[in-house]
């Protein structure tokens, strides 16, 4: 599918690759909107600057006032990076599905593993621009705008692990499984693919012609990661065939071990890889509970961790010898998702907005980030564009914090205060807030929300569930009234977010709370079909205003984008937007 936002499960609130990116998670469970695709447009003209940061960040982290596009990765020439070594990467969980486009496949941790093995046809750069990945494509171009036609020329060296060449048939099969016509395919989203009329063979099997029946602006990123046609051979294979392990790969690495008992995945160099040889011999992705991250880094069990919004991990990292804190503005924000399904007590949009008005996001941001930042944490008032991008507008006025207004709105809705809790028609206003555990950040946010909503007469019942079950058994299936994680955004924020904010009666996509309207659907359709960058951003901002009115989700704060990493790690750290894929080829150790 079109790159989804990734979700991450740090409920920082996550990262789709859903997400993760939608989630895009884990949001720090990160989801894939990779929950993750939300933020800066590919069209943003920004300056790419890769620069090494200070050896220590002693005076606190920057907020979101910096420049988008600056990465902090200890850049080193290949001659300075040793050949070999094992990089140990902590994750919240192993993939629920190695098919990133299946509904359960959108968490950010899974996307990171998948990206070492599968073809990413493009590279997202630190400044949010996108370039063709020459390992897989010789060229990708917009051949015509009316009708819109894309032409891909596949690198003739590119081969699947079963020996077959990548071909136009892989593109065709992926389109057919993701365009929404066969509802048996449990897809995380249909964006872009539903607008295609046909996928054809060009001059050779490695030439692909994609013709659209309706214009689709953010086409860079489609068919990425690419999967073999065999995966889409049936709905059963698409939905479950890759749940336990990938069957066919084509990347610089291949699977070494999948150990669900030991909670780890290793990938090792693939001798059949036709591109530049990776510096690392092996990457080990190991599940590490968030409270244990600092100890694991100090003890040499992992080589970095995402600080997220943990003041404890930030403080610990500052004092570690041989560890550097690196920071870059990141397309990563924490939020609360509301459930508007008929089964939820929050099915009324006006009730959801009233509760949002009772949540003080500035206080939450300060509580979580205040001790880490030099200045104040900036709350996020947009569901598509993040702070630091020129398209960003704060459209949150209708749901802005106002305790007295919240009380008045609840009274008007018939939720009258009886003792400490409001009631309507004899039913108490009790909201079930589902969070992953162990996760200190999720726990802290939920308790702050619980305390704040108590002041307006709403009772919050916090339900902590195992992190490994959080997305699959709760978020993905709408088993919550409120929940939270982090969305990892992308350079194609509007199309990546369509599956989150559009309401499709036939499919959840990544709209886990089942909230939407025909008006939002129409605006997103218009935005995704608008080739003019400025007009597209204006349409997205109009849609964003309507999303706020619906009480869809409440962004809390943008993450400071800090990571604690071993000082001898090169070409990796705070990568800004350069996370699809990470630079697995050049990252490694200087000694």
Automatic annotation (TrEMBL):
A Pfam family per the record: SBP_bac_5
Positions of the Solute-binding protein family domain: 143-492
Region (Disordered): 1-24, 54-83
InterPro entries according to UniProt: Peptide/Ni-bd (IPR030678), SBP_5 (IPR039424), SBP_5_dom (IPR000914)
Origin: domain of life: Bacteria
UniProt name for this protein: ABC transporter family substrate-binding protein
């Amino acid at each position: 599918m079109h790159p989804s936002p990734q979700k991450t499960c740090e409920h920082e609130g996550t990262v789709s690759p859903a997400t993760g990116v939608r989630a895009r998670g884990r949001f720090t469970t990160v989801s894939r909107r990779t929950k993750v695709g939300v933020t800066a447009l590919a069209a943003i003209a920004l300056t790419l600057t890769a620069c090494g940061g200070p050896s220590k960040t002693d005076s606190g982290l920057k907020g979101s006032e910096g420049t988008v596009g600056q990465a902090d990765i200890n850049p080193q020439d290949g001659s300075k990076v040793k050949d070999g070594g094992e990089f140990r990467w902590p994750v919240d969980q192993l993939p629920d599905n190695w098919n990133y486009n299946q509904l359960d496949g959108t968490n950010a941790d899974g996307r990171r593993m998948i990206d070492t093995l599968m073809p990413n046809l493009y590279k997202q750069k630190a400044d949010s621009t996108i370039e063709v990945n020459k390992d897989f494509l010789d060229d990708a171009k917009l051949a015509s705008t009316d009708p819109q036609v894309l032409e891909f020329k596949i690198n003739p060296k590119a081969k699947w692990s079963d020996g077959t060449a990548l071909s136009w048939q892989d593109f065709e099969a992926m389109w057919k499984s993701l365009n929404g016509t066969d509802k048996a395919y449990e897809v995380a989203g249909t964006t872009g693919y539903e607008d295609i009329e046909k996928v054809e063979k060009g001059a050779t099997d490695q030439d692909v012609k994609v013709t659209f029946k309706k214009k689709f602006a953010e086409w860079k990123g489609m068919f990425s990661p690419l999967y073999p046609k065999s995966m889409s051979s049936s709905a059963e294979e698409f939905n479950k065939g890759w749940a336990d392990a990938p069957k066919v790969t084509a990347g610089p690495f291949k699977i070494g071990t999948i150990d669900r008992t030991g909670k780890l995945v290793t990938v090792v160099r693939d001798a059949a890889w036709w591109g530049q040889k990776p510096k690392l011999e092996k990457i080990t992705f190991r599940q590490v509970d968030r409270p244990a991250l600092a100890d694991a880094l100090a003890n040499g069990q992992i080589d970095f961790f995402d600080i997220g919004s943990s003041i404890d991990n930030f403080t610990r990292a500052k004092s570690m010898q041989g560890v550097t804190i690196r920071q870059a503005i990141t397309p990563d924000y924490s939020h609360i998702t509301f459930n508007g399904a008929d089964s939820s007590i929050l099915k009324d949009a006006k009730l959801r907005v009233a509760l949002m008005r009772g949540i003080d996001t500035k206080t939450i941001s300060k509580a979580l980030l205040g001790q880490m930042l030099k200045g104040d944490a900036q709350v996020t008032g947009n569901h598509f564009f993040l702070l630091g991008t020129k398209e960003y507008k704060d459209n949150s006025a209708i749901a802005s914090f106002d305790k007295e207004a919240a009380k008045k709105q609840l009274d008007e809705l018939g939720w009258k205060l009886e003792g400490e809790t409001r009631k309507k028609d004899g039913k108490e206003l009790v909201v079930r807030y589902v969070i992953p555990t162990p996760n200190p950040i999720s726990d802290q946010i939920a308790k702050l929300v619980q305390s704040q909503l108590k002041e307006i007469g709403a009772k919050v019942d916090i339900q902590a569930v195992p992190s490994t079950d959080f997305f699959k058994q709760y978020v993905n299936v709408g088993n919550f009234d409120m929940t939270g994680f982090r969305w990892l955004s992308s350079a194609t924020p509007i199309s990546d977010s369509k599956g989150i904010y559009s309401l499709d009666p036939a499919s959840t996509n990544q709209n886990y709370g089942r909230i939407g309207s025909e008006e939002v659907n129409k605006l997103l359709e218009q935005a995704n079909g608008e080739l003019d960058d400025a007009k597209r951003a204006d349409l997205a901002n109009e849609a964003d205003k309507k999303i706020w009115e619906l009480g869809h989700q409440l962004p809390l704060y943008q993450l400071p984008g800090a990571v604690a990493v071993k000082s001898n790690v090169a070409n990796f750290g705070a990568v800004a937007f350069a996370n699809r894929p990470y630079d697995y080829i050049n990252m490694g150790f200087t000694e």
